[in-house]
Structures are given as structure tokens and as C-alpha cells.
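Researcher: We're teaching a course module on how sequence relates to structure. For the next exercise, students receive a sequence and then see the predicted structure as C-alpha cells, so they can try to spot secondary structure elements on their own. Here is the exercise chain.
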Amino acid sequence: MPHVSTINGAAALCLRKPFRTSSRSHARKTIRTRAGPVKEAERPAIDVTTKTLNEGIARFYDESSGLWESMWGEHMHHGYYPKGGPTKSNLEAQIDMIDESLRWAGIDQATEMVDVGCGIGGSSRHISKKFGCRAEGITLSPVQADRANSISQSQGLGGKVNYQVADALHQPFRDGQFDLIWSMESGEHMPDKAQFISELSRVCKPGGKILIVTWCHRNLQPGESQLKANEEALLDSICKAYYLPKWCSINDYEKLFEENGLQGVKTADWSEEVAPFWGAVIKSALSTQGVMGLFKAGITTIKGALVMPLMSRGFNKGVVKFNLITATKPL
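Model: And here is the predicted structure for the students to work with:
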């Protein structure tokens, strides 16, 4: 749902404040894939601030994913609630978010996909079943990777989908491996948006599609060089709880797509379509099960829960945007 110096080539965006370094060991972690336990791949050397942020993200999702799954299931993202549409459950809305995003992007088939920031694998399993494609997923959280593989095995997908711990900015895949690059609400976690888009383009097969669904701040208006002070303060509070670097706009993403030579770039703002989501999340957090689960999960998850009303306020004020961007890698 959150890394540090340059966010993109169009706008130099940096972390608001460094986060405290975790005491957790940085040794290679053992995770489970369809072939059994494997070692996490060594990551290239990164600066300490990025390293600390990555640790915070991993810790946040290690602690909170079990609670989210118990309350909301395997899909760790917004639901799609179009105005005037039929009443639906939150699970139906989350599945609709996947299907409607694919439809909007004109994606109706895939042979091999990567789920960048996969959570516990909900969307990539759904797409694998929908298109019959193979899927790889990456996350910073060992708990998420292990759980994603466990669920996949239980659903009979162990030979078709696989999840591992890896950095989205240094992906362990060969050039041009995938014809579908899928990023559902992980872009906001990336500290270097230029490197993020470069990596997505690198692992995309010529003729393949890239689709990012992500949180952004509003586009700047003519004459503006930055957000207003109260808007920055609101986003700062969200960043501290969710281990996010400074936000960027969908215009920033669009420039990066163009800089990478991607074609047919298309964007959309679905802020209204996800509007009911945070209210539903807050309601579930205030339930008996939610409150007990928060205290069991730990202080990091509690801090995240306390900031949920700020996300709702950000959407209501038009500061926070729920954006989509897609493009094709040229042949």
C-alpha cells in the first residue's frame, strides 16, 4: 500500500524523513516456493535510507497481512464501486477491481505475468485462472511470500504460480520475460520511480503490456511548483504510518512511461470508483474482531489503522488520487 531519493526524472522527489533502522537481521532469508524452501536472492548494495525503508515495509506487511486476510481475504487492495452500480460485497468489489482494470487496459490474454508487490498473491492467482497463464510474484515480505505460496498450493496452482522475496527495483528476472506486467497498489512504495518504471520495461516482452494501479497525489495546476502546505502535511502523516516515500502525480508517471519509450500510454482517475473503500475498512477495524486483531498484530499495524481516516480525508479533499496507467512495450 509504501522506499527514497529521486522518485522520477521529471520531478526530484525524496523521502520526508528517514525511518529508524530495524534491528532485524539482514541475512538471507529462507522462503518457500513451489519447489520447496529456497534462499532469498542477494540484493544489490543500496543506500541505508532505502534499506531502512524496505525493512519498515517488510515489517509492516509481516505484521499486518494475517489480520487483513482474516478480515478481508486474499485481495489486499481497493475495491471497485462505480456510482449507480449494483450493491456488492467488498470481496466482489475487489475482484471487480482486477477485472475492470484489465478491461480498461485492453488486456484479454497473457501467457506469463509478473505481479510486482504481490501481497499474498490474490490478484495474480485470479489472473492466472482467468487467462491460464503462468505467474511470478515478488514482495519484500517473507510472511507474504510464504503465505502466497501456501494458498496457491491449496488451490492447485503450485505448478503455475510462484512467489518470492525480491526488490521491485532489482527484479530477479531476465529481460523480456513477461507479456503482462501487473502492479496493483505497490507503486506508491517505490522510492525511485524512474528505476521502477525502467525495471518494469526491462522485464516486459516486446509487445507486452504494463499496467500500474497506484496511489498518487493530485496533478499540480498551472503556476504551482508543489502541493499546498496543508496537503503536504496530510501526506506526511500517511507516509509515516505506511512507510511511504514522497508521493508523485499521474503526470509524473506518464512522463516516465514516455521516457522509457512505451507506447499507447493511457491514464485514468478512479478516485470516485474506490470512494467507499476506506469507510468499509475503518468499519471493519472498529469491529470486535478488528480491534482484537490490531492489538495482536502489534504497534506498527495499530499506527496504520489510526491513519486510515486520513486516507479517507485525502480522497475527499481531492489530494489523494487512485490512478491507473498502462502502455505497450514496442516490438
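Model: If you want an answer key for the exercise: Confidence is low (pLDDT under 50) at residues 1-48. The first strand starts at residue 30 and ends at 33.
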